[in-house]
Design goal:
The protein is of the alpha+beta class. 29% of the residues lie in helices and 17% in strands. Among the domains are: 33 residues, no CATH class; 91 residues, Phosphorylase Kinase, domain 1 (2-Layer Sandwich), CATH 3.30.200.20; 178 residues, Orthogonal Bundle (Transferase(Phosphotransferase), domain 1); 42 residues, no CATH class. It contains 13 helices and 23 strands. Helix 5 packs antiparallel against helix 8 and helix 10 packs antiparallel against helix 11. The protein is elongated.
Length: 521
C-alpha cells in the first residue's frame, strides 16, 4: 500500500496502529506518525487519506443514508446516521488479550458502520464468539446518542429472532464504558467473499442455501422488523456451511422508538436497495424481498446487477431499473426464472406477498431437475444439428419408401390377397371433476402410466391438475401440467380441493387467479 514512508518515519520508534480500508475493510498496521498521509489499498486499489474527513463512496456494499439532494428526503439530523465504509477506522490493537466482561479479545474480524468486530473467547462457556464493540463518537458527528440507540436496537431486533437462519445474539453489555454485543461466530465468512473467491454459484445450491435466511426474514416481518440492509455482506456462513442473515443495525422495528429517527429516510446499502427506497419512499417488507432478489442475481452472475460510474447515476438506475435478462445464467429453470422476475418486480405489489411464500418457491426450485434456459448461441447450434438430422432422416425415409413400393409390387404380382386389418379403437379415460381423483391404467396396458396423460384423458372434465411428484397445481393448458405422467396425475375439481390437498399454485400459470381453459367440444 502507498505511500512509501522514509526510513526515519518508519523507524522513529512511533507507536503502531491498525487502519482499515474504507472500501473493502482490509486491515493494515502503520506508524501513528503517518496521520494525514494518502494510502492506497493493495487489495482493492482504493485511495484515501487517513485522518482526513471521511468521504462518501459509491460502493455497492457501503451503507448510506441517501442525502435529500438525490433521494428526495429530508436532511439528516444533527448527528449523522452511521455509514458503513465511509472512512478509515483506526483499530486499537492494544485490545488484543484484554478482557471485556466474560470475554477475552483475540483478533479483529472486521468493521462496520457502528463498530469493530472481534473474535473473542467466552471464558465461562469456553467457546469462541464474535464481539461487536461500538465505536466511540469522533466529535464531528454529535455525541453518539443515535449510534448507541441503533446499536441497542440491533441487539433487540436480533434477539427477537430465535431462528436457525439468523445469527444468534447472546447478550449486550457494557464494560469500562465500552458497549458491546456478543453473538454467534460465523467462521465460514460472508457470501460476498465466497462469490469473489469462487465465482458464480450453481442455482440449485444457492436456492437451497437461501431457504433458511429467507424464512428468518419472514419471521422478522411477522414480528414487525424490516431488515433494510439485506446484501451479500450480511449473509454469512457458519462452520457447518449454513447461510444465516445478520446485522440488523439499520432495521425498522415497529415498536422501537429509535426506528422513528430513520423511518421515511432512504437507509441501506446503495447497491442493494429497492426502487421505492431509492426514491426516498417508505421501505416495506417487499423492499427486503427485492434486495434478496438482488443478492440471488449477484450470486448467480458473480457481479452486481446494476453498476455506474457515479453515485447519482447508480441511484437513478435503482430508481428505474432496466428489464431483467436471465438468458446467460446456466442451469436456470423456468420456475427459477419466474421467481427472480417476481422478486425484482419494480412495483412492490407485483413481488411475493410474503418472504415465507418466497422461501417455499426457493425450496421448490432447489429440488427441481435441471431444465436450463438455453443461450441463443447454443440454440443456433442445436437447430443446425436438428436440420442435418432431419435431412438424413428424409433420405432414409425416401429409401424405405422405394423399398416398400418395390416389395408391394412384388406382393401384387404373387397373386396373394392383402389381409384386412381392423383399426384399434383409442382408449380414452374420463376423470370425474369433483374433488381429487386419479386415473387408472385403462386398457392400454400396464405401461400406459409411463406416458403423458395427453390423449389418454378426456380434457373436457379437467379443471385443475397436479402431480404426485411435486407440490404445485396447474390449469390443464399450462406447459408444466402437460408434462405430468398419467400415473402421477391427480385431478382437482376446485382450487379449495387443491389447496386442501397441500398443493400451492404454480407461479407460471397462476391457477389461483386464472380460470382454467374452457372445455373443448
Amino acid at each position: 500500500m502507498n505511500p512509501r514512508p522514509s526510513q526515519s518515519e518508519a523507524t522513529a520508534g512511533a507507536s503502531q496502529v491498525d487502519i482499515a480500508c474504507p472500501q473493502c475493510n482490509a486491515l493494515y498496521r502503520v506508524a501513528a506518525t503517518l496521520t494525514g498521509r494518502r494510502f492506497q489499498c493493495r487489495k482493492c486499489g482504493h485511495v484515501w487519506r487517513w485522518g482526513a474527513r471521511p468521504a462518501r463512496t459509491t460502493s455497492a456494499e457501503s451503507g448510506v443514508n441517501m442525502p435529500s439532494s438525490e433521494a428526495g428526503v429530508a436532511a439528516p439530523p444533527a448527528e449523522a446516521i452511521p455509514v458503513a465504509g465511509s472512512g478509515s477506522t483506526i483499530i486499537d490493537m492494544s485490545w488484543v488479550g484484554k478482557r471485556l466482561g466474560r470475554y477475552r479479545l483475540k483478533s479483529v474480524l472486521g468493521r462496520g458502520g457502528m463498530g469493530v468486530v472481534w473474535r473473542a473467547q467466552d471464558l465461562t462457556l469456553n467457546r469462541d464468539v464474535a464481539i461487536k464493540i461500538l465505536t466511540p463518537p469522533s466529535g464531528r458527528g454529535g455525541d453518539g446518542t443515535l449510534s448507541r440507540a441503533l446499536f441497542l436496537q440491533e441487539a433487540r431486533a436480533a434477539a427477537k429472532l430465535n431462528h436457525p437462519g439468523a445469527v444468534t445474539v447472546f447478550e449486550i453489555a457494557e464494560d469500562g464504558g465500552a458497549q458491546f454485543i456478543a453473538m454467534e461466530l460465523m467462521q465460514g465468512g460472508m457470501l460476498r467473499d465466497h462469490i469473489e473467491a469462487h465465482g458464480p454459484m450453481e442455482p440449485r445450491r444457492l436456492f437451497r442455501l437461501l431457504v433458511a435466511p429467507t424464512r428468518a426474514l419472514a419471521l422478522a416481518h411477522e414480528r414487525g422488523i424490516i431488515h433494510r440492509d439485506v446484501k451479500p455482506g450480511n449473509l454469512m456462513f457458519d462452520d457447518h456451511g449454513q447461510l444465516k442473515l445478520g446485522d440488523f443495525g439499520l432495521s425498522d422495528v415497529a415498536d422501537d422508538p429509535t426506528s422513528l429517527t430513520l423511518r421515511g429516510r432512504s437507509v441501506g446499502s446503495l447497491g442493494w436497495v429497492a426502487p421505492e427506497t431509492a426514491r426516498g419512499e417508505q421501505t416495506l417488507p417487499a423492499s427486503d424481498i427485492y434486495a434478496m432478489g438482488l443478492v440471488m442475481l449477484y450470486a448467480l452472475t458473480g457481479k452486481p446487477w446494476l453498476a455506474a460510474e457515479t453515485r447519482s447515476k447508480l441511484l437513478e438506475l435503482h430508481q428505474n431499473p432496466p428489464p431483467l435478462d436471465l438468458s446467460d445464467i446456466e442451469g436456470l429453470t423456468p420456475d427459477a426464472s419466474a421467481l427472480l422476475h417476481r422478486c425484482l418486480a419494480p412495483n412492490p405489489a407485483d413481488r411475493f406477498r410474503t418472504a415465507e411464500e418466497l422461501a417455499t418457491l426457493l425450496e421448490h426450485c432447489a429440488n427441481e431437475p435441471d431444465e436450463p434456459l438455453i443461450p441463443q448461441s447454443v440454440l443456433m447450434r442445436s437447430r443446425a444439428r436438428a436440420i442435418i438430422a432431419s435431412v438424413g432422416l428424409a433420405i432414409l425415409a425416401i429409401a424405405l419408401s422405394i423399398a416398400f413400393i418395390f416389395g408391394y409390387l412384388q406382393y401384387l404380382a404373387s397373386g396373394m390377397k392383402k389381409p384386412q386389418s381392423r383399426p384399434q379403437p383409442r382408449q380414452v379415460v374420463t376423470i370425474e371433476p369433483a374433488g381429487a381423483t386419479e386415473p387408472g391404467d385403462g386398457a392400454d396396458g400396464r405401461d400406459a402410466g409411463n406416458w403423458s396423460w395427453l390423449g389418454r384423458v378426456d380434457e373436457r372434465g379437467l379443471l385443475f391438475i397436479a402431480s404426485r411428484q411435486d407440490r404445485l397445481y396447474h390449469v390443464p393448458s399450462c406447459l408444466e401440467a402437460r408434462r405430468i405422467l398419467l400415473r402421477d396425475m391427480i385431478n382437482y375439481g376446485s382450487r379449495e380441493a387443491a389447496t386442501g390437498g397441500g398443493r400451492t399454485p404454480c407461479p407460471i400459470c397462476r391457477p389461483d387467479v386464472n380460470d382454467p381453459s374452457p372445455p373443448r367440444d
